[in-house]
Amino acid sequence: MTIIKVDNLTKTFRTVQKRPGVRGSLRSLFKPEYQAIHAVRGLDFEVATGERLAFIGSNGAGKSTTIKMLVGILHPTGGKAEVLGRVPWRERAPLAYQIGTVFGQKSQLWYHLPAADSFELLARIYALDLEEYRARLHYLVEIFDIAEYLHVPVRKLSLGQRMRCEIAASLLHSPRILFLDEPTIGLDVVVKQRIRDLILELNEREGVTIFLTSHDAGDVEVLCKRAMVINHGEIIYDGKVSDLRRNYLQTKTVSLKLAVPWEGFSAQGVRLLKQRGYGVKLEVDTAQTSIEQVIAQLLARYRIADITVDDPPMEEIIAQIYLAQTPLSEEGGAC
Amino acid sequence: MKIWRLISGYVRHNFMAGMAYRGAFFLQIFGMMINNLMLLFFWNMMFLSFPTLNGWELQDIIVLYSIVAVGFGFSVVIFGNASRLASLITSGELDYYLALPADPLVHLLVSRMSLSGWGDFFFGLLLYLFVLPSAWRNLPLFLLLSLLAGLISTAFAVLTGSLAFWLGESEQLAAQLRMALLNFSLYPVDIFSGGVRLLLYTIIPAAFVGSVPAKLLTDFDIWWLAGLILVTALMGGLASWVFRLGLRRYESGNLVTVRG
Fold it and tell me: Strand order in A78-83's β-sheet?
C-alpha cells in the first residue's frame, strides 16, 4: 500500500540579492533584486507502508525542504503530495496526529526540564488518553532504556541520551510514519549504532514507515533497504541500498596509528592513500577482500596504537552517482 | 477543551521551568515592580503641581496604571512568546509548532512565560486593591477589563510580529511598535488631539488598552464595554487571519535550536 505519494513537487524560494556595501544595502532596500532558489525541482516518488527509506544528499540538496513539505511545515511552489491520503499543507493538523518527526538539530524537549515533563506536555498536545499515554510511556521507556534519565533535566544529558529521549518523544502518539532528519548527527559510533538498532526494532515491531535523511553512509547501509539520492533538488538515484553498496560503497578507509615505523604493505584490493610518520591511511576495496582479513594481516605485521574504519563520505558517493548518471540524463534516460 | 488542557499544561511547565532558577525568578518579578513604582512616582510628582490634566486626576492615572499593568502582565505571562514571534519566523523556529497537531498560533504563544510579567501583574493588582477606594467591589469588572486589555495587546504583538512573514528581519520594528502601544496606553488619551488621537484608536490601539478600560471602571457604560469586547474580538480575529496568511509564505530555516 502506498503511504506517501509525491508528484512533480517543487519549491522555489525567493531571496533578495544584496549588493555589497552600504550603498548596495540602500539600493536593495528601495529597488530589491530577487533571486529564485530552486530548492526542490519536480520530485516524483512513492513510498510503501512499512518501508525504510533513506533520503540522502549533500548540504543544500533539498532534503529538509522535501521533508518539511511532506509534514506540512512548508507550502510547495508547485506539484502534489499525499501523505496517508492527506495533502500535508492543507490538512496539517489531522496529519500531525499520525506522523512523528525528529529533527536532529532541533530539540522538542525542554532544555531546563526533565524529559518526563516534556513527555507529559506532548501527551496534552496530542490529546492522548491518560491511561493509554501511561502504558505507551512505560513501553517506550523500556525499549529505549531511558528510565534512569527520565527525571534528569535535559540540559544535563549527553547528546546520545538526549537523542534517545527525542525519538521516544516522537513516538508517544504511535505515529504511522516517522520522519528522521539527521538523527545521528554529532553522535559517537557506539551511540549511533544504538540509535540505529532502536529505529530498526521500531520498524519491525510496529511497522512504522521510516523516512530518513542522513549524511552518514553507515546509517543508510544499516537502516534502509531503499535509498533515494537527491542533488540540486532532483532525484539522481532511486534504488536498493544493496545496489548502492555494490556500486558505490565498496571501499572503506582504514586509518592507522602505528607504534612502529611503516615499512609498506601490499595485499589485493588495498591501496595506500596517505602515509606520514606513524600515521597511515589505506583504502580497502571490499569487493576484493574483507576488512577483517586486511586488519588481521596488518596486526600480524605491525604493532598498532589506534585503528579506525570509515565509510566513504556521503559527498563522495553522491559525486560518484552524479558523475555516473550525467551522460545518461543528457540522453534523457536517467532517474 | 483540548486547547485548555494545552494552555494549563504550558502554564504549569513554564512555571516549573522558571522555578528551576528561583533566584532569577523572584529577582525579575521584584525588579519589574520597582520599575513600575518609579514611573508612578513621577506622575505623583506632577499631580502635586497640577491637580488635573484634561479631566484626569491622580486616582484615574492609578486606575489606568493598574489596568495596563495587570493586562500587560497577564498577556506576557500567558502568551509570553508573542514578543518573540518575528524572530521565531525569521529563524525558522515555527517548524516545531507546525509539526504538532495543536493550533500553531495558540501553541506558540503559550509556550513561553515572561517572568517579569508576574511583577507587572502583581504590581497592578496590589496597586488597585490597596490604593483605590471600593476596589474590592469592582474587582470582577477590573479583572475583565484587564483581560480585554491584555488580549488586545497580545493580538497587536501577533500582528506586528507577523510582519516578518512579509518583511523578513523585522524584530526591531515589531519591538518598537509594541513599545509604542505600551507607552501610549499609559497616558490618558484625552491629552492627545487630532491625528495622534485617531492613531491611538486605530493603528496603534493604545486607547483600548489603557484609557477606555480605565474610564469604564470609574464611569461604567454598557455600550462602551460592548464596544471594547467587539474591538478585542476583531483584533483577535484579524491577528489570527494575518498569521495564517503569513504561514503560506513561511520559509523555515536551519538554525540549531533547543527549547528553553
Answer: A33-48, A2-17, A78-83
Q: Which residues contact B18 (CB under 8 A, 6 or more apart)?
A: B25, B113, B115
CA gap B252, B260 in Å, rounded: 19
- How high is the pLDDT of residue A326? 61
Domain-embedded: residue B256 = no
Dihedral of alpha carbons B125, B129, B131, B136, sign: positive
Which of B2, B21, B252 has its CB closest to that of A127? B2
| A335 pLDDT higher than 70 | no
| Beta carbons within 8 Å of B67's beta carbon, 6+ residues apart | B124, B128, B142, B145, B146, B149, B210, B213, B214, B217
| Residue A282: closest CA among A291, B133, A72 | A291
Give how far A87 is from chain B: nearest CA, Å: 14
ipTM: 0.80
**A283, burial (CB in 10 Å: exposed 0-12, middle 13-18, buried 19+):** middle
What is the chain A residue with the closest CA to B21? A112
Which amino acid would we find at residue A302?
Y
| Domain range A250-310, its CATH number among 1.10.4030, 1.10.10, 3.40.50, 3.30.70 | 3.30.70
Whether pLDDT at A156 is above 90: yes
Q: Give the nearest chain B residue to A175 (CA atoms).
A: B100
Annotated domain spans of chain A: 2-247, 250-310
Which of B100, B245, B255 to mutate: most A Cβ within 10 Å? B100
Q: Which residues of B touch A124 (CB under 8 A)?
A: 5-6, 9
Q: Which residue has the cell 488586545?
A: B152
Chain B segment 21-50 residues within 8 A of A by beta carbon are: 21
Residue A331 reports pLDDT greater than 60: no
Nearest CA in chain B to A66: B252
pLDDT tens digits along A229-249: 898 899 988 999 888 877 777
Please state, for a pLDDT cut of 70, what percent of chain A lies above it.
Answer: 96
The tens digit of pLDDT for each residue in B160-213 reads 999 999 988 889 999 999 999 999 999 999 999 999 999 999 999 999 999 999
Say yes or no: A153 contacts chain B, CB-CB below 8 A.
yes
Taking the Cβ of residue B251 and every Cβ of chain A, the question of whether any pair is shorter than 8 Å is answered with yes
Distance from CA of A114 to the nearest CA of B (A): 10
Q: Are B206 and B184 in contact (CB under 8 A)?
A: yes
Is residue B255 in some structural domain?
no
3-class state of residue A79 by DSSP:
strand
